[in-house]
Structure formats: structure tokens, C-alpha cells
């Protein structure tokens, strides 16, 4: 029996220590003492995101506003669930970062309308942040100010283009120019295996969504499913045809190898956050160009104020948001290139465009051009976004895998999106 | 009956009364941990969940009663119907296959040969690998150029993309289940080993063959264990979550979506607490019906010895 | 099974089958170890061999390099997991023996009714109560803590209670009567007599509980959001889904962590197997000896 007792005692001691170390902290409330106020700010990503995107700007804000302290909550995964439980538990952070999912929360009345603040400060969101700002509206009221910008962008490998004696992609490129170049740059060995891919794109909406909008199509318009249009059929048909001839197949991509960084892919369509990572790859000689075609899909995020915050916290939160999204702080963001600033003035500023990233300059003027091409599809304009876009990805993937024709995909998707919209 | 016996009888009765009351108090004292948990974490939540399944609650805005529309919508929700079908199909393939294989392996291991301890341990090892670890591992094994296809290639077979093909993606989960077959096997093995040798001895004297002994002695003797594994296997496979969540997220195009992961997505990604609750009740009904069917059928094939007290 | 009259060919055949099955079941382990030891270049092209070719121990060093910080603070995760595991085991051992004693030895008119209730909860899928229980713990301010994973264990689980009760009914009644004559009350009997006697059963429960708490994903996934509160299983799941800055999943690292996640469970099995086998793993065998 003594053995069991000893074991029990040891376990007790272990628990006591562990309890002290990891279960101790609760939710400290942000009470204001001696005129000081603490606001909570929540964003997703890891510590790298915090360091790259927010740390310096928040330090600058706290220096400029000594009476306001910002408590940062960094959420690694399941961000929406965390925000949901905080809102539901009446513990919502004063300022929360939101992206495409923001409308969902706004439709549940989680954020305050920023209209009066915008009016008081004479802000022109359209002019300052481009069309991307359209994303953060619910029933005509603005609930978020764009903070991190970005649209789909075309990355290309300069060496591959040079070797083929082809001109680099430029801002006049049409979708067909892109497809044609991709086909030319795809190389096979004698057995027919691809050794160099013209492009790598797949079910990511930033790529096919941009092409769809350029062709005059849409997924949702005025709250109605509009997938089964002839424009979309054409977009999907071309997209599939070129995927088969010149893009990395799913079977190959399943290993998760980044073949663009290995120099085996001529062009790729993706978000802007790859610039920094790609620039650090030795031997990769790349640059960026705007998304081919007339429109581009938005990939940014905004800052919101919680409805649960009291008057003082709302005022402080607005000061924070205003500071973070204004030129000074956005320049700090642009300089580190942890992410893309949303503020157009910064994107067009020579200081931003001419900066060196890992020792090289890139065509960063592209970003402002691309930002202006952003168009917001109706799929963003409702709480249905997460659910609807999941099904879009599913159908596009099935189509690209060759399991169904573009026509079938369009029809399936039309039915699915309509059913999803009906749920809300 | 004289007075003295009456008094004694009364006294006896009252002390028995007292004893019963004492005993009752002690009974509730001892079962109180479970009873409190049962009321607070089972009955209460069950009532709440049942009520919630008739609302459109999203945890953020007000709760509105929507009648039975959650249940009606469930049966016109193509993804839910697909996940039901997938869950059933997965259970229908993996549970019997698992039982058959584990029975075969347990039978092999029951021979008194040298090295059986080693094989027993080897076969049981995969079953004790945490599901998270084994699922991550199998995601790599089943990818287009993963281990399985490399092995098949060794025999000149061009393996399919297990995780990308709608028609075969469910087999990925069957493979995963089969790898953990040792869990069931070890239970069957210990049941086989606990059968009294004298039964076989008398059968041998009667001139029974090995096959006859297996079907007439071994199978009936271990049938309660098979029954137990069948029930837990069905219930467990209907509640599959981790494997789907980690390996395919229900893809491609919901071809591997199952009830519990879909419930999770609805509750925690789309904030449909009411809808997800309705789903849980449908799952409960399904499990009940299947359990009752298996239970009813068991009297025909499960052999019970006299209960050992 | 009797097998005195087995021929040599028979034996060879059986061994052959055993070896083939053994190979198939062991191959994934081999692959796991091989991947976990693959070098950077192999990870870059993600082409892993079946047998380990490289022995790049750096993966394990990277994994254990920053125990309490960085992207994967596995030291913190381990402590969190241990907290949950140890408290869960204590909770289950206590509650199952306590409640089982009530059901096994106390007399009460409606005892069978309560026992039936207990058995019925074994059929109830956890998903029914998942959301309400989540809301209860959230309202108690326990979201993003480990308590929702621990507290329910102190209320016992139907399976463990049933299992322990079966074990208790097999204890001869004279032992209790002798104790009663010694003037012990029921709690005294529970503590002095019953608890030591059912320890083997509780040891098996400890192993079951360890296996569950150590590998559970759904629980931590729902209740915990900060990386500093993760358990190892959730951490591994998260790591397997995230990419490193160059966009490629570091498969070797994920596999190394998966391997480390498996080791304690295998170790527990080796130390605990005598309890598991002595008990014939419980429930299903209550009919045969």
C-alpha cells in the first residue's frame, strides 16, 4: 500500500506545481485607473505575425498616446471560434481584426457602426483604401477600417522568362496572355513528364475569382446566386483547360513542395504575403506583376470596434484604429513588409515602392495598381461567406481534378450556393 | 402471538427501518459524484440541447424558436445526407472487417508456439498510437507518392490518389481503422485464451476436427466479447471525428464528410448551435436504433454462460 | 487452443502468416521513423524513403530546442497534457471506485433504477451534450483553460463505474462483514478494505484514462485557443496543418512530434500490461472466466 501512497503524494505535488504554472491566469479586465485605459486588441497568426505586422506600430501608438495601453491577444488557429465565444461570453476584445468573415459577425451585431467617426474625421475610405474598403460594410454601415491590404498578384520567375526569350508579364496582360505564356513555358521530358510548369494555380479563389470577374461573371449578386452564367462557364472551361496543360496537378502538389521557390514554375497567382518569403529564397530571381485582367480578388483585413465596449473604450479604440490605419503607422507596416499596408497613399509613396527587400528591389508599384483593381463580389456581402466559399473551392477542385465538367461544376455550385443563401 | 415477541418484532422492524434509511443515505453519499455529474453535465445539457434543436441560436443574438425546421432542413441538406451516407458506409465496411481480421489474428496468436508474446506486442502496438499521430502518419502514407503507392509500384501497380478521389477516399479511413486492429484483437485473444482446455480435450476425444472445435467451442465461448466489440465498434465509428478533421477535412467535395465533423463545423464555424444540436439528436436516434437491432439479434448468436457471481 | 498434433509444415505456415502481417503492421512505424530523420533537402522535395537513409537528428533538436517558447513550445504543451492526464486519472480512479462501491454494496429499493440510468448514459453520444456543456464551461469563465477537460473526470464515467462494480461484486462478502464487526462505517470500509482490493481494476482504469486524456483532440480543440494552453495532441495537430515560412510543411518535424506523442502511450502499455491482461480487459469477459 505504501507504494500507492507515495505515488499519490508525488502526483499531488506535481499537480500543485502544474496548477500554479498553467491554470492561474484568468481574464484580467481592463479597468481604468488614474485616467489610463487599456484596450484589448485581437488578431490571428503566430508570434511571427505579431512581430512582423503589429509590434512596432503598437509601440508607436502607445508612445503617441501615453494614456492608452494596448493588450494584444494573438490567436493561432480557429480565430473565428475564439471571437465567437468571446462575443457570446460578453468578453469581446475592444478591437478585433476581421477579414472576409467580418460580415458574419457584423450581421450578428457584434461591431459598432463607424459611420459617425468617419464623418467626423472627414475620411474618404474609397479614396484612401480603394475598393477593398467595400468589404467591411453591412447594410450600408461601415464596421471596419482596412488595415492590411492586398489582392491576388502574379509572381513570375525572371530566369525562366529570360531563357525562353519572352517578355515579362505587365499590367496590360489579359487572361489569354497569361494562359498563352503558361503553355509556352511548360516543358516536358522525353517520357512526357513535366519538368517545368508554366504556372501553379488551383482552387484558390484569388485566382479563378479574379478571372471570373474580369469575364463579367459573379458568384452572388444582390443576395442571389449567379453562378450559372455563360461568362462563368467560359471562365471555368478555360481555367480547366489551361490547368490541365500547364499547371501543377493536385497529385503532384499533394506533397506540399513549393515548386515556385524551387524555380520549377514560371508563374504563380497568389496573395502578396509571399513577397518577403520568396525574396529570402537563394537563387530565386522573381518579380511581381498585377493580376492579369481587369479585376482582382481582395485578400486584406480590417479593424473593428466591439459593441460590448463602453464609451471610453470605444473612444480609445477609435484612436487606436485611426492611428494604425493612417499614413504614419502604415508606413511602418510597409517598411517591414510583414504584410501589405491598406493605405493607398503609402502604397504609392516612393519610400515604399523603392525599398529594398532582402537586398533587392521589386516592382512594388504593382501593389497599388492591383489594389485599385479590387472588386468585391456579392459572396462577401453576407454572413454566408465562409460556408459558400468552402463549396466553391470544393466544386472548382473537383473540376480541376477532372472528376466533372465545367458545366457540371457550374450547375452543382449554383444549386449549392442558392441553398446556402437560403439558410441565412 | 404473545406480547414479548410482538415487542421484539417491532424493535427488529424499527432497527431494520433505521438500517434501510442509513443504507439509503450511504447509497446516495457514494453515488453522489456520478449523480451530480449526471444531473449537471448530462440531464441538464440534454434538455438544453433538445430545446436548442428547435431554435436558430447562434450564441450571439437572441434565441428564436423555429419549430421543427432544423430537423426538416437536415433531411434536405445534401451535405448532411452525404455525411450520413459516408458515416454508415464507413461503419459498414470498417466494423465487420476489423472484427474478421482481429478474429483471424487472435486465432493465429492463440497457438502455443514460441515467440507469440513478441507477435502479440507487435500487433498491438499500432492500436496504442494516439489517433492524432496515426492520422498524421497516414496522411503521408496515403498521398499520391506516399508509402502505400510506392509499395504498390513495387508490384507494378499504379496506385490511385487515395485522398483526392471521391470514390475511394473513404477507404483511407478504413486503412487507418485496420491498422489499429490490435485493440480488438487483444480482447478476442484474451477471451480465447481463457477458454478451459478441458473443453477441447473432450472434443478431441470425440474426434472433432480443428474447424469443428473452432465453430462449436471457440466461437460460442467468445461470442460475448465479439458482441461487445461489435456494439462499441458501431458506436465508435459512427462518431468518427479526429481522422476526418485531420486527414481530409471532409474533402474532396464532402466525399469523406461524416456526421460529427459536419456537426462541429456547423456549431463552431457557422455558429448554428440549433442546427448542430438537431444533428446530434439524429445521431443519437441512429445509434439507439442500431444498438437495439444488434442487441435484439444477439440472443440468437451470443452464448452466455451462467453469470459468475 | 489445443495444438499438440501440429505438423512442422503447419507451424511454418503459421509463422509465415504471422511475419507477413507483422511486416504490414510495422511498416508505417518504420516510415514514421524514417520521415522523422529525413534531412532538409529531402523535406524540400518531400520524397521519403521507407528505411531511414539519413539520420538527421537535428529535427529532434529543433523540436526540443525551445521548450517554452517559439512556434512550438512543446515543453509547455507537455506540462499542460500532464496536468490534464494526472488530474483525469485521479478523478476517474476516485469517482469510479466511490460510485461503484455505492452500487455494489449499498442496499436501496430503487438502486436498480439508478443503475439502469447509469447504463443508459453509456449509449449517449457525447455530441448531444457537447454544445450545452461547452456553454456551461464558457459561462463559468473556463473557456481557454484546461479545467473543462479535467472537471468532468471527477464525476466518473459510466463505463468505468460499471467495470469497477463488476470487479467489486466478486469480492467475497465475509470481508465486509468482518470489517463491519470491527466497527468501521461504510466510508471506513471503502477506504480501508475496498479501495486496496480494487486497486488492480483502478490501475486498468488509470491506463484507459491515460490513453484517452493523452490523445484526445476534440476536447482541447473546442476549449483551448491559446498556444500556451495547448495539449501535445492539439499542438501536433496544429503543427501538421501549418507551414513554415517557405510554405512547405516540415513533415519531418511533424513526424518527430507524432513519434514523441506515441512513446509514452507505448511505455504505459508495457508497464501496465499485466493489469490489463489479468483483468481480461474487463467488460466483455464478465460472462466467461
Structure write-up:
- The complex is a heterotrimer of chains A (424), B (309) and C (289).
- Chain A is an alpha+beta fold and 424 residues long.
- Chain A has 19 helices and 14 strands.
- In chain A, strand 10 and strand 11 (224-225) form a beta hairpin.
- Chain A is globular, with a radius of gyration of 24 Å.
- With 309 residues, chain B is an all-alpha fold.
- Chain B folds into two domains: 1-52; 69-301, MetI-like fold (Orthogonal Bundle).
- Chain B has helices at residues 3-52, 69-74, 78-109, 116-124, 131-141, 147-154, 169-179, 182-193, 197-205, 210-238, 242-247, 259-268, 273-301.
- Chain B is flat and about 75 Å long.
- Chain C is mainly alpha-helical and 289 residues long.
- The two termini of chain C are 15 Å apart.
- Chain C folds into two domains: 8-65, no CATH class; 74-285, MetI-like fold (Orthogonal Bundle), CATH 1.10.3720.
- The chains are: A alpha+beta (424), B mainly alpha (309), C mainly alpha (289).
- At the B-C interface, helix 1, helix 3, helix 4, helix 5 and helix 6 of B face helix 1, helix 4, helix 5, helix 6 and helix 10 of C.
Question: Secondary-structure map with pairings?
Answer:
The complex is a heterotrimer of chains A (424), B (309) and C (289).
Chain A: H1 2-22, E1 37-44, H2 47-64, E2 68-75, H3 79-88, E3 95-98, H4 102-107, H5 115-120, H6 125-129, E4 137-138, E5 141-142, E6 145-148, E7 153-157, H7 158-163, H8 175-184, E8 187-188, E9 194-200, H9 205-214, E10 220-221, E11 224-225, H10 230-246, H11 250-253, E12 265-270, H12 274-279, E13 286-290, E14 301-305, H13 311-325, H14 327-336, H15 344-347, H16 350-353, H17 365-372, H18 385-400, H19 406-423
Parallel strand pairs in A: 1-2, 1-3, 9-12
Antiparallel strand pairs in A: 3-14, 4-5, 6-14, 7-12, 7-13, 8-9, 10-11
Chain B: H1 3-52, H2 69-74, H3 78-109, H4 116-124, H5 131-141, H6 147-154, H7 169-179, H8 182-193, H9 197-205, H10 210-238, H11 242-247, H12 259-268, H13 273-301
Chain C: H1 8-36, H2 40-45, H3 58-65, H4 74-105, H5 111-121, H6 126-139, H7 147-150, H8 158-169, H9 173-181, H10 186-197, H11 199-215, H12 218-223, H13 232-241, H14 251-278
Helix pairs in contact in C: 1-14, 3-14, 4-8, 4-11, 11-14, 13-14
Subcellular location (chain C): Cell membrane
Family (chain C): Belongs to the binding-protein-dependent transport system permease family.
Membrane topology (chain C): Multi-pass membrane protein
Amino acid at each position: 500500500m505504501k507504494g500507492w501512497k507515495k505515488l499519490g503524494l508525488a502526483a499531488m505535488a506535481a499537480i500543485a506545481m502544474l496548477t500554479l504554472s498553467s491554470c492561474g491566469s484568468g481574464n484580467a479586465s481592463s479597468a481604468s485607473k488614474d485616467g489610463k485605459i487599456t484596450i484589448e486588441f485581437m488578431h490571428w497568426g503566430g508570434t511571427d505575425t505579431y512581430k512582423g505586422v503589429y509590434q512596432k506600430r503598437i509601440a508607436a501608438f502607445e508612445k503617441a498616446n501615453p494614456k492608452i495601453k494596448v493588450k494584444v491577444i494573438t490567436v493561432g488557429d480557429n480565430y473565428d471560434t475564439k471571437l465567437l465565444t468571446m462575443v457570446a461570453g460578453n468578453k469581446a476584445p475592444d478591437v478585433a481584426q476581421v477579414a472576409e468573415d467580418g460580415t458574419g459577425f457584423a450581421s450578428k451585431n457584434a461591431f459598432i457602426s463607424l459611420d459617425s467617426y468617419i464623418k467626423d474625421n472627414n475620411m474618404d475610405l474609397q479614396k484612401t483604401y480603394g475598393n477593398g474598403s467595400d468589404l467591411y460594410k453591412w447594410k450600408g454601415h461601415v464596421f471596419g477600417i482596412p488595415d492590411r491590404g492586398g489582392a491576388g498578384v502574379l509572381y513570375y520567375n525572371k530566369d525562366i522568362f529570360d531563357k525562353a526569350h519572352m517578355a515579362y508579364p505587365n499590367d496590360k496582360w489579359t487572361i489569354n496572355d497569361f494562359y498563352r505564356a503558361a503553355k509556352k513555358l511548360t516543358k516536358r521530358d522525353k517520357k512526357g513528364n513535366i519538368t517545368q510548369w508554366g504556372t501553379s494555380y488551383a482552387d484558390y479563389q484569388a485566382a479563378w475569382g479574379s478571372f471570373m470577374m474580369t469575364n463579367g461573371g459573379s458568384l452572388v449578386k444582390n443576395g442571389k446566386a449567379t453562378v450559372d452564367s455563360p461568362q462563368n462557364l467560359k471562365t471555368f472551361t478555360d481555367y480547366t483547360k489551361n490547368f490541365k496543360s500547364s499547371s501543377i496537378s493536385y497529385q503532384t502538389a499533394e506533397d506540399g513542395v513549393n515548386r515556385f521557390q524551387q524555380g520549377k514554375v514560371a508563374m504563380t497567382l497568389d496573395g502578396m504575403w509571399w513577397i518577403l518569403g520568396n525574396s529570402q529564397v537563394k537563387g530565386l530571381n522573381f518579380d511581381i506583376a498585377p493580376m492579369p485582367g481587369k479585376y482582382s480578388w481582395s485578400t486584406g483585413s480590417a479593424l473593428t470596434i466591439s459593441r460590448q465596449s463602453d464609451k471610453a473604450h470605444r473612444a480609445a479604440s477609435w484612436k487606436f484604429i485611426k492611428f494604425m490605419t493612417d499614413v504614419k503607422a502604415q508606413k511602418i507596416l510597409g517598411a517591414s513588409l510583414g504584410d501589405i499596408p491598406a493605405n493607398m497613399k503609402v502604397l504609392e509613396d516612393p519610400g515604399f515602392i523603392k525599398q529594398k527587400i532582402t537586398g533587392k528591389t521589386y516592382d512594388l508599384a504593382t501593389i497599388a495598381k492591383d489594389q485599385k483593381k479590387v472588386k468585391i463580389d456579392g459572396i462577401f456581402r453576407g454572413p454566408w461567406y465562409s460556408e459558400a466559399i468552402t463549396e466553391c473551392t470544393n466544386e472548382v477542385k473537383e473540376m480541376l481534378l477532372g472528376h466533372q465538367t465545367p458545366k457540371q461544376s457550374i450547375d452543382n455550385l449554383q444549386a449549392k450556393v442558392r441553398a446556402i443563401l437560403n439558410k441565412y | 402471538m404473545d406480547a414479548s415477541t410482538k415487542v421484539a418484532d417491532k424493535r427488529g422492524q424499527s432497527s431494520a427501518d433505521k438500517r434501510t434509511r442509513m443504507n439509503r443515505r450511504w447509497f446516495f453519499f457514494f453515488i453522489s459524484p456520478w449523480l451530480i455529474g449526471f444531473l449537471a453535465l448530462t440531464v441538464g445539457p440534454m434538455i438544453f440541447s433538445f430545446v436548442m434543436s428547435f431554435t436558430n441560436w447562434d450564441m450571439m443574438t437572441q434565441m428564436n424558436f423555429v419549430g421543427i425546421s432544423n430537423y426538416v432542413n437536415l433531411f434536405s441538406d445534401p451535405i448532411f445526407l452525404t455525411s450520413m451516407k459516408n458515416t454508415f458506409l464507413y461503419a459498414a465496411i470498417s466494423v465487420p472487417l476489423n472484427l474478421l481480421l482481429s478474429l483471424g489474428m487472435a486465432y493465429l496468436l492463440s497457438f502455443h508456439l514460441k515467440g507469440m508474446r513478441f507477435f502479440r506486442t507487435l500487433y498491438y502496438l499500432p492500436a496504442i498510437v494516439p489517433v492524432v499521430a496515426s492520422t498524421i502518419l497516414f496522411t503521408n502514407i496515403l498521398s499520391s507518392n506516399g508509402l502505400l503507392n510506392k509499395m504498390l509500384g513495387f508490384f507494378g501497380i499504379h496506385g490511385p490518389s487515395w485522398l483526392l478521389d471521391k470514390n475511394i477516399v473513404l477507404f483511407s479511413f478504413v486503412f487507418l481503422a485496420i491498422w489499429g486492429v490490435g485493440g480488438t484483437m487483444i480482447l478476442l485473444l484474451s477471451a480465447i485464451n481463457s477458454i478451459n482446455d478441458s473443453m477441447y480435450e473432450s472434443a478431441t476425444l470425440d474426434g472433432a476436427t480443428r474447424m469443428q472445435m473452432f465453430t462449436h467451442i471457440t466461437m460460442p465461448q467468445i461470442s460475448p466479447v465479439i458482441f461487445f466489440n461489435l456494439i462499441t465498434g458501431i458506436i465508435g465509428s459512427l462518431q468518427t471525428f479526429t481522422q476526418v478533421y485531420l486527414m481530409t477535412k471532409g474533402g474532396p467535395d464532402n466525399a469523406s464528410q461524416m456526421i460529427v465533423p459536419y456537426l462541429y463545423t456547423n456549431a463552431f464555424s457557422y455558429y448554428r448551435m440549433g442546427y448542430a444540436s438537431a444533428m446530434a439528436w439524429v445521431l443519437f436516434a441512429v445509434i439507439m436504433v442500431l444498438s437495439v437491432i444488434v442487441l435484439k439479434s444477439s440472443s440468437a448468436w451470443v452464448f452466455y454462460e451462467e453469470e459468475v457471481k | 487452443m489445443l495444438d499438440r498434433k501440429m505438423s512442422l509444415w503447419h507451424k511454418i505456415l503459421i509463422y509465415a502468416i504471422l511475419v507477413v502481417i507483422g511486416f504490414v503492421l510495422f511498416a508505417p512505424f518504420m516510415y514514421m521513423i524514417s520521415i522523422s530523420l529525413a534531412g532538409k533537402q529531402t523535406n524540400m522535395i518531400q520524397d521519403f524513403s521507407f528505411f531511414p537513409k539519413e539520420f538527421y537528428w537535428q529535427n529532434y533538436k529543433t523540436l526540443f530546442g525551445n521548450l517554452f517558447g517559439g512556434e512550438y513550445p512543446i515543453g509547455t504543451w507537455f506540462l499542460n497534457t500532464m496536468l490534464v492526464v494526472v488530474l483525469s486519472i485521479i478523478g476517474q480512479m476516485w469517482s469510479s471506485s466511490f460510485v461503484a462501491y455505492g452500487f455494489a454494496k449499498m442496499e436501496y429499493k430503487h438502486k436498480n433504477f439508478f443503475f439502469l440510468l447509469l447504463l443508459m448514459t453509456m449509449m449517449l453520444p457525447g455530441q448531444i451534450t457537447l454544445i450545452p456543456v461547452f456553454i456551461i464551461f464558457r459561462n463559468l469563465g473556463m473557456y481557454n483553460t484546461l479545467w473543462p477537460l479535467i472537471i468532468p473526470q471527477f464525476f466518473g464515467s459510466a463505463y468505468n463505474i460499471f467495470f469497477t462494480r463488476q470487479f467489486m461484486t466478486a469480492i467475497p462478502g465475509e470481508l465486509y462483514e468482518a470489517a463491519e464487526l470491527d466497527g468501521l462505517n461504510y466510508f471506513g470500509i471503502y477506504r480501508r478494505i475496498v479501495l486496496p482490493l480494487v486497486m488492480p481494476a483502478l490501475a486498468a482504469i488509470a491506463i484507459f484514462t491515460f490513453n484517452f486524456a493523452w490523445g484526445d483532440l476534440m476536447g482541447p480543440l473546442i476549449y483551448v485557443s491559446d498556444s500556451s494552453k495547448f495539449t501535445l495532441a492539439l499542438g501536433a495537430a496544429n503543427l501538421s496543418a501549418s507551414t513554415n515560412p517557405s510554405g512547405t510543411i516540415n513533415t519531418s518535424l511533424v513526424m518527430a512530434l507524432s513519434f514523441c506523442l506515441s512513446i509514452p502511450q507505448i511505455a504505459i502499455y508495457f508497464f501496465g500490461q499485466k493489469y490489463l491482461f489479468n483483468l481480461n480487459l474487463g467488460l466483455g469477459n464478465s460472462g466467461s472466466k
